[in-house]
Design brief:
- The complex is a heterodimer.
- By secondary structure, chain A is an all-alpha fold.
- Chain A has one domain.
- Chain A contains eight helices and no strands.
- In chain A, helix 2 packs parallel to helix 5, helix 3 packs antiparallel against helix 7 and helix 5 crosses helix 6.
- Chain B is α/β, with parallel strands linked by helices.
- Chain B has a single domain, classed as Rossmann fold (3-Layer(aba) Sandwich).
- Chain B is about 35% helix and about 25% strand.
- The chains are: A mainly alpha, B alpha/beta.
- At the A-B interface, helix 1 and helix 4 of A face helix 2, strand 6 and helix 3 of B.
């Protein structure tokens, strides 16, 4: 019960702060929308070019880079006025901090996607995928959990380093590649031809496995990651 | 009287630099230890080890009977830390900050306790304002509320008077006087007058070692002379 109360306290604190300042959300939304406009002009110069097979890649690359922006900011606030010390002084299991921070980042990423996906669909997807919307949401959720779990763990590790803005992308991007491949393939299939749970089963299982691996990794290492 | 704080052969190394070189001391329950020393002597590192923010490299450190390395959780419930960094979220209000910490410490009577502390620290009228709009003195008062919200037995003070105006110093000292009998204190300070005024035990740390230890009641001039021997920089009197 105490762990749940602490989880909710950290999550509520992060949400209140973000709703008040909108630092993270605004910068992520702007980045995503600008990236789409740039993709539109960069790849859509010839009207007869079918971009459908690039859509998954464009979408996930954009989300991953947007998340990088957010991850840096999500821990920057903990370093203002040494708030991280205040948090670490509390009798809280360090894994609770990880899950609360991951949940916060997940909520922010989902908000970005609620805004970005319709715009993206308007720009790049020429086939209606209404019948596959549940499948698409499952892909989004599984990939988002992996991005946020890995991102939160690595942002924690890099936050105490002098060059954290540089270090985080350097360690995050190579590790996120397997998830990027699976999420891109699944999304492109949905946008291009439509799919079913059966067709995408392997991809979905891979995403689930990725999420599980980094959740377990964080469970085992977070005490060390957030410590001195 | 049982020892509330027990430190035995404490060593701490950062990279190749040994910051603490075998500190040993004890503090009885209800005692007030004032720690002095030049910058970089290891005072704050000692305090951060007691607060479980740093792990001891070697040696044994117990707070309220719990080992800080093996049994950190009960230690964290027992201590409160007041530092010159207030550890408050600037974009949250005073009330939101205290509610957050109240939930983190599992304070049962959270809202009543917050009301009591905000009244006591003369911050009730600003409870719904974000902390970013507070003066340094107000932030420090709120930091005191944060630190004692969960009724800790041991209070660790890291330069608590640093950067405060005289009014804020008076309020801080008034509050310390009020809660003096309820807590055990360890205070790191450059302010000799305050350290001597409050301390029941005095200590000077120099280069990671205890250079001087004395019970309270020492003649201030004699102490200043000893202090100057160990501290090259100008002291604050």
């Amino acid at each position: 019960m105490t762990g749940w109360r602490q989880f909710m306290a950290i999550l509520r604190k992060d949400l209140i702060r973000e709703l008040r300042t909108r630092e993270m959300i605004i910068s992520m939304i702007l980045f995503v929308l600008l990236a789409m406009v740039i993709f539109h002009y960069a790849f859509g110069v010839k009207e007869d070019v079918d971009l459908t097979y690039f859509t998954g890649g464009m979408l996930w690359v954009t989300f991953i880079f947007a998340m990088l922006l957010g991850l840096n900011r999500s821990f920057a606030q903990e370093q203002d006025e040494r708030c991280l010390d205040g948090l670490l002084l509390c009798p809280v299991d360090r894994v609770t901090i990880f899950f609360a921070k991951t949940a916060g980042n997940l909520i922010f990423l989902l908000i970005i996607q609620v805004v970005a996906v319709p715009v993206f669909t308007l720009f790049f997807v020429h086939r209606g995928y209404g019948s596959d919307i549940v499948l698409f949401v499952v892909v989004l959720l599984l990939a988002d959990v992996g991005i946020c779990a890995l991102g939160t763990l690595l942002a924690t590790i890099s936050m105490n380093t002098r060059s954290r803005d540089l270090l985080l992308p350097i360690i995050f991007l190579p590790l996120i590649v397997p998830l990027l491949i699976a999420a891109t393939a699944a999304t492109t299939t949905i946008f291009a031809t439509g799919a079913s749970f059966g067709v995408l089963g392997t991809r979905l299982l891979f995403l689930l496995g990725f999420d599980a691996v980094f959740m377990v990794a964080a469970y085992g290492t977070y005490d060390f990651a957030i410590g001195e | 009287m049982p020892l509330e704080i027990e430190v035995e052969g404490l060593r701490k190394t950062f990279g190749r630099r040994e910051v603490l070189k075998g500190l040993s001391f004890g503090l009885e329950r209800g005692g007030f230890l004032s720690i002095f020393g030049p910058n970089g002597a290891g005072k704050t590192t000692t305090l951060r080890v007691l607060a479980t923010l740093l792990t001891p490299g070697a040696g044994k450190v117990c707070v309220a009977g719990h080992d800080v390395r093996e049994d950190a959780m009960p230690v964290r419930r027992t201590i409160g830390l007041i530092s010159h960094n207030p550890m408050l979220y600037l974009d949250l209000t005073a009330q939101e900050n205290l509610r957050f910490y109240g939930d983190m410490y599992g304070v049962e009577d959270r809202d009543a306790r917050i009301d009591e502390l905000l009244d006591r620290l003369e911050l009730s009228h600003r409870r719904y304002d974000v902390v970013r709009t507070y003066s340094k003195g107000m932030r420090q008062r709120l930091a005191i509320a944060r630190a004692i919200l969960h009724r800790p037995r041991v209070l660790l003070l890291d330069e608590p008077h640093s950067g405060l105006d005289p009014r804020a110093v008076d309020i801080l000292d008034g509050l310390l006087a009020e809660i003096r009998d309820e807590h055990t204190f360890v205070m790191v300070t450059h302010n000799i007058a305050k350290g001597l005024e409050w301390g029941s035990q005095l200590m000077i740390i120099e280069n990671g070692r205890i250079a001087y230890e004395h019970a309270a009641g020492v003649d201030p001039d004699a102490f200043v002379a000893v202090y100057r021997e160990h501290v090259q920089e100008g002291s604050v009197l």
